[in-house]
Structures are given as C-alpha cells and as structure tokens.
C-alpha cells in the first residue's frame, strides 16, 4: 500500500514542486517490528519505583527551596520583611530582588532557536510585579517543611498599579495581529465578507474557550548543584538542550557548562519548560554553596507555570444550497502577555481543512497581566477545532445535510491556503472507517429524538487535524560494537509516551538487529541533537537523525570492509542493513555481518554521529495528521448534567510505529479533549488577576468514572514524505474532540453551547 500511495502522490505533484528528497526505504518496510505493540521498556522500572524523577535526586548537603508568590497583578515591591523567615528554624537563605545575583533575562521558547523559557522577564532583578502569582522571594532551608514554613513568614508590601486583568481592559489596551514562529497568523483569499453576505446559506457565530492550567501528574521540579564551573541540573523537561542553553545564557556561561538530564518526565504537554524555579534554584545554589531542590506545590504550578490561554473566535461560513463553501472566516483574539510567544494559532485547522474560494483567517493578540501562557497540547489547533468544527455542524444542521457528507463535499484537492499538494491525506477514509465502527447511521438528524430514562442521547462528530513538524536540530550517534550491540543516542525525551520503546524498535529495524541488541539513550543535554519534545515532532526528528547516522555508519563500514568483503565496491547508497550485517540493497545475498567486517578491520566498534537534513518535506508538501472523532453524549433532563458515554477516534496519521504506545497517545489526547469540553477552566478574579482555583480540588479534570471506553483506530497508510512514513500522534487526539462532544450534546438536547466548558448550568 505504501508504494502505491507514494507513486500516486508523486504523480499528483505539479512540476514546480520537487518531492523533498527520496523517500525513506523504511516507509515501505514489511518488518513486523514496525507497528508491533511492544510494551514500554521503561515500564518495569516505573512500576518498581526505580525510575528517578527530578525531585528524587538526593544530593549531599542539599537544601530545599520554597517560593513566595505575589498577591497583586501589577506594581512594585515597596517593602519586603524577611526577618522572621531568616530567623526560622533550618533557614539557610532568603533571596529576593534585594540580594539576588545578576542574571540575564531567559531566552524565550519559540523566539530564540534554543530558547526554553516560558517567559522572557528578568528574574529577581528589580522590584516590578507583572502578574499575580509571580515569585517575589525564595527561601532555602534544610527541609522542605522548614522552607514552606519560613516562606509563609515573608511579608510583602506592594505599591499596587492598575493591572490589565479582564478581556475588556486588554482589548482597550491594544490589539494586534499575532505572530507564530515568525509569521503572521493571517490569510486573506478573495473577499470573504462579501462572499459571506451573498451566500445562500450562512452561519456566523462566536465561540469562547477559557484559560487552562497545566496539571501534569508530576509537579514541576528541579534539583541542581554547581560542580566547580559546571551547573548540574536534574530536570523534568521536554527540552534538555533548550534548558541548558537557557540557563547558560542567564548565568553568562558556556552551554557546555550546563548539563541537564531528564530521564523521566511525569507528563509534559507543553508545560515542562524553563520557569523561574530553575533560575532561582541555580542562583540560590551558587549563593549558598549547597545543592538545591525546588519542587513546586500544585498551587505553585498554577501561579508560576503558564498554560492555555483564553480565546474568542468568530467562525462564519457561507455556502451554496448544496453546502459548498463560498466563504470561510475564522478570526478572533487570544490573550497573551507582553513577554511570551504563544498566541494560540487557532486558524491552523481552517488553513487546511476546507476548500473555499474566499477566506479570511486571522488571530489577533492582546495582553493581560498574567503568568505567560505557553503551549498546551495542540495549542491553537485544539481550541480552533472546537470553533470551526462546531460551526460546520451548525451549517450541516441548517442545510439538513449529514455533517460527514458536508465535510466530504468540501474536501480540497490541494492545500487551500498554500496551494501545495498534500503529502498524504485520507481524512474521508478515516471518516468512512470511523462512521462504520461507531454506528453513525443510528444518528438522528434532529436533536431530542432519543431518550433513555432521564437521559437524552445524541451523536456528534468532528475533524481532527494537526500539522507535521520536523524542526531543525536533529542529530544522532550510533556506536556499533563487534559483539553485535548498537547504542543509539539522541538528546530527546521520554515523557511517558513511549519514545524510548518506539525508537528502539525503529532503530532495530534500521540496523537489522533484534531489539534486544539495541539500546536507546536520551534525556541528556550532552547527547547529540537539540530536539524539543513538542509539536508532535519528536518521533520524526529522531527517525530522520537516525537515518542520517545509519547512512554514515554504512559508509564507515564499507570503508572498513575492504576488497575481500562480498560488499567490496559498493557505495553507501547501494547497501542496507539486514540480519546483523549489511547487504546490497537489491541483492540480499551479497551480505556480510557487522562482526566479520569489524573483525577483519581489527576494530572493536564503529562510532558515528550525523545530523538530520533540514525538513524539505514540509516546504514542498502540505503535511498534516488527520482524524475523525465520534462521540455519544447524554444530557440529563432533570439536572442538565452532560456525560460522554462513547468516544471513538479514527485517524490518518501515517505509519504507526508502536500500536500500543500510539494508541495511548491518541486516546490520552481524546481524554484531554473530554476534560476541555466538559470540565477544565482556570478561573481568574478579574479584580486582581488571581487564579481562584489553584488546586486539583477546584480545577476539574476527568476522573476514571468520567471517561468511557475510548476506541482508537487508524488507517496505517504511510506518508511517503515523512521519515519511516510516520506523522505525529501526540497532539491530534485533543483536536476535534471538544467539537465532537459539543455536537453530540447538541444532537442530544438541542442546546448549542459555544463557550467551553459545557457545564450543566449552560444546558439547563
Ligand atoms: Mo506540546 S503543546 O508541543 O508539548
């Protein structure tokens, strides 16, 4: 299937596009290890409690840090009384802007190539307060409890200034077109407003999505020590190299002087970046001469770690009587701060999903005094899909057309905004397969047609989509030894999603070795590569880097093989790995084992490092993961309570590398979407910008009983232009899910909720 689709895609490509390089041979490999549901290699150590997380490194002489958070949104620290705290038992140091060492502002994630900080504000360098919850003092003590107690004794007096703590105030203060990764979030094709006005049918609605906090199970934590001139950091991060670079910049030292390791991460989702506690731990460790551990409390995460931001989105669709889109408008605002770079690019979905002759897509940003918002699983695409896919459902209802038929009718033949061909797009097949498995034909076209006891039952669907990314910085090292062991190392991350397992599988296939003879090292800034576990790109980056390193390995082995080898005279591009050796690509019989090549050359091992080439593929092709989400929702006629009782995702995400870990990623994304649809919301006190529900008792996320069986399925069609045919699976599950749930709730009870979360008060 892979070959046929590849040929089709190449044939479809207009002459002006080159293909973005030759396909990875593994794209069409029939090795059964690709896709095998291998259990996590790190599972046993985690179950046994042997996996050490950032706050579990007990260093000699270590002290513990606790933070004091500001209680005003904007102003100056007028007075800071630390006498009681300094006199409290066990206290080693109280640090604030009054006595902190000089530190440079931290380089910002997505603004500077290796930036890793959630915000770009200097830390403890002046008396300014920028948000309610900003750390204003740090206490170091011999125990965590002593530090927490002493922190409670710090008294701060503020000169309070008027902060911007409401949408209205933010709007009044100024609004501008947002930029995402260096480009404006804006597309204008034709006159979309005029086309809308003259369309036979139209919907034109506002949708709202709230702030959300990151609530990974593992609290943000860091343990640091200065070993001479080297800063040693045990972190929980999705960017070891970004963290090292950021800390090096802040302290004015070389990047090599910061070593960050992060072997296990208890959930990332975009929030495990560099925050103030990292910088303060390192500064306080220097000042006190002691190793320092800071683990934020759950409240601390809500105060000092940013999450998803508020959006207000307009979606307007004009269509002819058959439902063909004449105009697509998706515009709106996202709230940001003055010192971050994450505007929730909620137009990404509209850019690629539907053919429409006129489009107006735009994200504007306005600023508030709040903790810097950062990526949170499918930033933009998740909340954008809620608005867009709700509006498509509203149009289908108005036209009396099945929502899947309406989507099929507007399926584009090429990227609607870029004009590029799709690398591989099988959204309609995903719908077909999903609809059949879900029993979509049972859906009533009109709401309130099905009631079981107190429960109104409805079905809904929505499209999931997430871009393919492969950022620069991929590099890998392979050490192959004569005993047939290969060690592959890349500075990437295992946040529980199965990176180490899936990559070990792929490396084994690439190297022609059994999995047991391959080890995969990661989570260390000293390893090759600078790769973020973000943008659902890690799998592709590692695959491309290992492919490059494997090519270097083949070249090296051919040099060593010499004239007596059956491989003599072959060029690197003429060979491939199989059965613990190299063979001619189209003549498997011309083969020699790694062991024999190394033995003849008198070598114990070969050691190669190579960089992944830049991602040509996403310049030449429109590359995205797709899916169709189906939901059965129930609404209680007495209480208004909404419940999701069935959820199914049918995905077109390229080739699946590990059926077990990929299913978990897709399912987990959908569950996060369920939480966003029905529960999650950070409440901000508009008088003072304070997060009101800074705990998991008041910030609701789905518990087990809230989550039904979540079915996931995939087409497993390789993307001919992605390394090993794979696109991302980490974020797409959350996209589409909120709208599928909102659409099912509407189909159940006839109430259209356009403001998340869909709580019972909105359904009464
Ligand atoms: Mo993600 S929001 O790219 O961790």
Automatic annotation (TrEMBL):
InterPro entries: Ald_Oxase/Xan_DH_a/b, Ald_Oxase/Xan_DH_a/b_sf, Ald_Oxase/xanthine_DH-like, AldOxase/xan_DH_MoCoBD1, AldOxase/xan_DH_MoCoBD2, AldOxase/xan_DH_Mopterin-bd_sf. SUPFAM superfamilies: CO dehydrogenase molybdoprotein N-domain-like (SSF54665), Molybdenum cofactor-binding domain (SSF56003). The keyword Oxidoreductase applies. This is Dehydrogenase. One of its GO terms (molecular function) is iron ion binding. Keywords: Molybdenum, Oxidoreductase. Gene3D superfamilies: Aldehyde oxidase/xanthine dehydrogenase, a/b hammerhead, Aldehyde oxidase/xanthine dehydrogenase, molybdopterin binding domain.
